[in-house]
Amino acid sequence: MDSHKLFANTPPLRMFFIAAIPGAVSMLASALYQMFDGIFVGQFLGATEFAALNLAMPFVIINFSLADLIGVGSAVPISVSLGRKLDKEANNIFTCACLMIFMAGIIVGAVLFAAAPLLMRLMGAEGEFAEFAVQYLRVYAICSPVTTIVFAMDNFLRISGIIRGSMFLNIFMSVLSGTLEFLFLGVFGFGIWGAALATCLGMIASACLALIPFIRGKATLRFCRPRFSWAMIRQIIACGSPNFLNNIAGRITSILLNFILVRLGGERAVSVYGILMYVDGFIQPLLYGMCDSLQPAVGYNWGAGKYSRVRAIEKCCFIASAIVSLAAFVVILLFPEMLARLFMSGEGEEFIAMAAGALGLFCITYVTRWFSFATQSYMLAVEKPLPASIISVATALVFPVILVAVLWPLGLTGIWLNLPVTAVLAAILAFIILMKFRKELHQPDVDVRA
Predict the structure, then answer these.
(1) Which residues of 12-38 are buried (b: 16+ CB within 10 A; e: fewer)?
(2) Does residue 325 contact residue 367 with C-beta atoms inside 8 Å?
(3) What Rg value do the Cα atoms of the chain yield, rounded?
(4) Per-residue pLDDT tens for 198-213?
(5) pTM of the predicted model, to two decimals?
(6) Which end of the chain is less crowded, N or C, counting CB atoms within 10 A of the terminal residue's CB?
């Protein structure tokens, strides 16, 4: 479907179902694979490998964070440029962004490969625990130049109106990665490095497929002779900073919490925290999929001066995010032991009870988390990266670090309560920011091309 007609003329509610539902399905497929990734490692390899995976995971996400900064940061100005009918400018930003992601993958991958053993030692890991974490991280680092572009291509496909194609590509990547991981771990008996290799191969295949419509000139966006400028790079960095800072700050927080968990409860505590993160990794992508999938439409209409359409689209985003979050709260609250056994069924009743108790506290996060998440996405889509970054950093780093100190007397219970209390504080902050920008967000429509 032509992206200009799709974003400019489709009724907001229909736009939500056209864009957000496939986006949520895409993220659901990815989230299911991430969950099965943890299940396969925990069931086929064991507790030490599962803990090692969770120790290395923050650094794996950091590996993708710079590419995510460029991919998301370029998506916003591309959408706004298309709304203003500046197609050549949009194509240039797209081409430059792809080149920047490739170079970032080479640099960050090389650094993480070389630094992996030192990073694990600094985390307090020793012996096999550290060795497995290094193996896992280094596979991602080697594949980084090719894999890091896959999530940016997802954004570019949606901007070009290839929304269902983006959805099917994500499903393909998850199915292929899951199948390969089952074969590598369950059939061939590979170690933890096989889990990382399976994911990377799925990403590489998907990235190659995603490039086809752009190379063939069948998409709204097309490759062109790149023209870099500092103004364009600054704009990409500014618009991508909220997601980048969220990834970096969140991983710093995870590294800090893992550092504390290793010392408070050893591998068992790290494994429980890993279960919480895998459950969150199933729910948060649904929220992200809905909100992020609507950003091209929101950015396009913001660039075109159709502010009433922006508000109508965002209203759908807030309502849907609330429904998904509250449903997640109910499911986790009712079935904590079942979720714990999915990952670590062989660890005994004491471990299951510990994990179930942590999940019972953790689920409170989703009562309020949706509001700050949707607000951050809203601010980013309408070219307000500073307030989006404030929400992002406060939620991912500032509030959790402060709460580590405040809740320290509670021991491990304080760690499990960290995210729920953070979500409440983030919702309050998001409400204040929305009130501050209320007048600008409610301005009447204008014709920016008149």
Answers:
(1) beebbebbbbbbbbbbbbbbbbbbbbb
(2) yes
(3) 21
(4) 999 999 999 999 999 9
(5) 0.71
(6) C
